[in-house]
Structures are given as structure tokens and as C-alpha cells.
Amino acid sequence: MKIIEALKKMKDLSKKADDIKAKIAKYCADLDCETPIYPDQRGQVSEWLQSHGDIVKEILMLRYRVQKTNVNTQVTMRLGDKNVTKSIAEWIHRRKDLANMEQSCWKQLTDRNLQETYKTQPTPNSPENFIKRRLYFDPKERDVKIELFRSEPSTIDGILETVNSTTDLME
Q1: Which DSSP helix (H) or strand (E) runs through 63?
Q2: Coil, strand or helix: which one is 109?
Q3: Helix (H) or strand (E) run with residue 130 in it
Q4: Which residues, at least 6 apart from 135, have a Cβ–Cβ distance to it below 8 Å?
Q5: Is 98 exposed, middle or buried (0-12, 13-18, 19+ CB in 10 A)?
Q6: Whole-number Å distance between alpha carbons of 103 and 80
Q7: For the segment 97-125, what is each residue's pLDDT rounded down to a tens digit?
Q8: Which of 98, 127, 140, 154 has its CA at a distance of 20 to 30 angstroms from the CA of residue 84?
Q9: pTM, two decimal places
Q10: What pLDDT, in 10s, does the model give residues 6-48?
Q11: Plot region of 113 (φ>0 → left; ψ -120 to 50 → alpha; else → beta)
């Protein structure tokens, strides 16, 4: 079974579990003046409870297998001018929020709208009459990094779509 098949199966199983829960809620009790819908209503409710429990166990098993596969499967992606190899799990975390965190940090590098200006009196620290703005970063590198981290999530999405459809689940 491929990762994508497991993800779809978990979604279907969750819907099935929700349907069973709705039936349990509807038929778990009635008034003694009503006619039961099922010949053995107690048995039917019990069967649904067992079925729901079995579905939950199957979802758990699939989740575990997907996580195990995600942790143990290495994927190489081209980011900028570098090939980067990480586990699927690591790429998922990069996609979820870590690439945006890095982009946000690089966006903090600005000139702070500081204006270069002339001053009237020289000081011991600055004997010149012109006050210059100093940047403690490379603006070109900043721009490259911001674009790299901005585009990383869509790159990850594209690669993981292929990986999820071609990678077998681990036992």
C-alpha cells in the first residue's frame, strides 16, 4: 500500500466511524412504548460499538505505518542551488511552519528606514560631518533567502505528492 492510499483509506475510515457513531446515538435508547427498529437492538448497538473500535484500531495502525514511513524515508529536493536531503517527516514540518519561520526572520533585515544625513557638530565617535547608514547584512543574500523560503512550501508540496504516490508503507 502506498502512502497516498493509506491517507485516503484513513479519511474513508473516519467517515465510516462517524456514520457508525451517528447510528449508535440514534438507536442506543428508546421508550418502552416504541417498537425497536432492529430485532435485537441491544446486539446491533453492541455490534456497532465493536465495529467502531475495530475502525479506530485500523486507523491507528495506518497512522503508525505512515509515521514510520515518513520518519525512515529520505527525500532529496533541490532548493535554490542545493540538493537537500531530509526525511518525509522533516519535510512535512518544513512545509507546515518552519520555512515560514525562517522567511520571517530574514524579512527582519531592513535598513530600518534610517536616513543618511549631515550633522552640525562632529563627535569623538564620528568626526565626519556626514552620518552614513550601516547595514550588518548582505541585502542580496537576504533577498535570495526570502525568495527561497517563500517558495519552499510549494516545492515540498510538489515533491511529496509524487513521493506519497510512489512510496510503499512500512510494516
Answers
A1: helix 41-72
A2: coil
A3: strand 130-131
A4: 111
A5: middle
A6: 14
A7: 999 999 999 999 999 999 888 776 666 66
A8: 140
A9: 0.82
A10: 999 999 999 999 999 999 999 999 999 999 999 999 999 999 9
A11: left
